[in-house]
Write a structure and sequence with these properties.
Strand 2, helix 2 and strand 3 form a beta-alpha-beta unit. The chain is globular. It has a domain of about 140 residues: Rossmann fold, CATH 3.40.50. The model has no long low-confidence stretch (mean pLDDT about 95). The protein has a seven-stranded parallel sheet with strand order 4-3-2-1-5-6-7, with helices on both faces. It has a four-stranded mixed sheet with strand order 9-8-10-11, covered by helices on one side. Helix 10 packs across helix 15 and helix 15 runs antiparallel to helix 16. The chain is built from 17 helices and eleven strands. By secondary structure, it is an alpha/beta fold.
């Protein structure tokens, strides 16, 4: 039988690549739901091709335009409520959550409550509310399968192993476009420069996060929740070639690494096909052509976002949600050319310093802290 999938964030980078994987295996998948933000034209194109039962768009006022263009009988919804209804109402085997930011938190939680397995490409969900999300997934017997290349790599390295013998998780990072720049140079970074990642083709927000190294910080917190690992046993290593996607060090000193070309379709496919591996026609890794593989320690003096994320993860409670929301807001201001590149970590640190951490938060506490942090950042930035 075909796997029935829904994609939240279908018009973004991960969403479109997920549909490429679906197109590689048309006999194995049925797309039953698609949700997008503001890209109406692309959502309509996807709906006409895949003919899902339900689509959801970001704004309610766009429903008439979408409804007039999608196939007859397709249900058209909108907003967060639309995504929640989509994941709860259809007979779905797996939900791909690839919405950027904490916008994906509520739909992911509701998908888990509905008993849907999750292919997780929205790291902010676990950063902001990892304790709540993972506890709910265990309660519902839901699998959370990582899509990020680093977490997919760790997941693959742990297959067939006793997880209690895993001593350390080693997340690799490309270092982004500015790893060899000085702190003084970073003050002059433009938006266009920040969006030119050397290895990966990604959305705007995650590309800026890679440039500040906050993306790796978010991945550290996500890895802690996904693999039940204390942050003191998670390490980040700069690997500019992006061939080794992450590693696990075991109790006997053995290190297992997962390698491959920097192509997100591979971890997406593994999340969708798990526990099986399916043959595809994607380019194979040629180690001779790849050449020398190098590794360095992160320059946290120049890229403080990584240490801010570690600090937030170690403090726990609502602090990771505050850190994440402050980052989202600061990155948005940078993309709008309202602040400088080096203002991003400064605004995050100041916001974290003002926060009265709640150690055992409920979902409402997480949402309130997220909202508070965004207002703080805007106030500190003068907006």
């Amino acid at each position: 039988m075909k796997k029935r999938i829904a994609i939240l964030g279908s018009t973004g980078s991960i969403g479109t690549q997920t549909l490429e994987v679906v197109g590689m295996f048309p006999e194995k998948f049925e797309v039953v739901g698609l949700a997008a933000g503001s890209n109406i034209d692309k959502l309509i194109q996807q709906a006409l091709f895949y003919r899902p039962q339900t689509v959801s768009i970001g704004r309610e006022e766009d429903i008439p335009v979408v409804r007039a263009s999608v196939p007859g009988g397709t249900k058209v919804l909108a907003g967060t409520g639309g995504m929640v209804e989509l994941v709860a109402s259809e007979d779905i085997d797996i939900v791909v959550t690839s919405i950027t930011g904490t916008l994906g938190l509520i739909p992911t939680i509701e998908a888990i409550r509905a008993g849907r397995n999750i292919a997780l490409a929205n790291k902010e969900t676990l950063v902001a509310a990892g304790q709540i999300v993972m506890a709910l997934a265990r309660q519902k017997g839901v699998s959370i399968l990582p899509v990020d290349s680093e977490h997919s790599a760790i997941f693959q390295c742990l297959q067939g192993e006793n997880r209690r013998t895993a001593d350390k998780l080693i997340l690799t990072a490309s270092g982004g476009p500015f790893f060899n720049r000085s702190g003084e140079d970073l003050a002059l970074v433009t938006v266009d420069e920040a969006l030119k990642h050397p290895n990966w083709n990604m959305g705007y927000k995650i590309t800026v996060d890679s440039a500040t190294m906050m993306n790796k910080g978010l991945e550290v917190i996500e890895a802690g929740w996904l693999f039940d690992m204390d942050f003191s046993r998670i390490e980040v290593m700069i690997h500019p070639q992006s061939i080794i996607h992450s590693m696990v060090e075991f109790a006997d000193g053995s290190v297992i690494a997962q390698m491959g070309n920097p192509d997100m379709r591979v971890p997406i496919q593994y999340a969708l096909s798990y526990p099986e591996r399916w043959k595809n026609d994607l380019p194979r890794l040629d180690l001779v052509s790849a050449g020398c593989l190098t590794f360095e320690k992160p320059r946290t003096d120049v890229f403080p976002c990584l240490e801010l994320a570690f600090a937030a993860g170690q403090r726990g409670g609502t602090m990771p949600a505050v850190m994440n929301a402050a980052n989202e807001e600061a990155v948005g201001l940078f993309l709008g050319e309202k602040i400088s590149f080096i203002d991003i970590p400064s605004l995050i640190e100041k916001t974290m310093g003002k926060h009265d951490n709640i150690r055992e938060p409920g979902l409402d506490d997480i949402i309130d802290s997220d909202r508070w942090a965004r207002l703080q950042v805007r106030g500190l930035a003068g907006y």
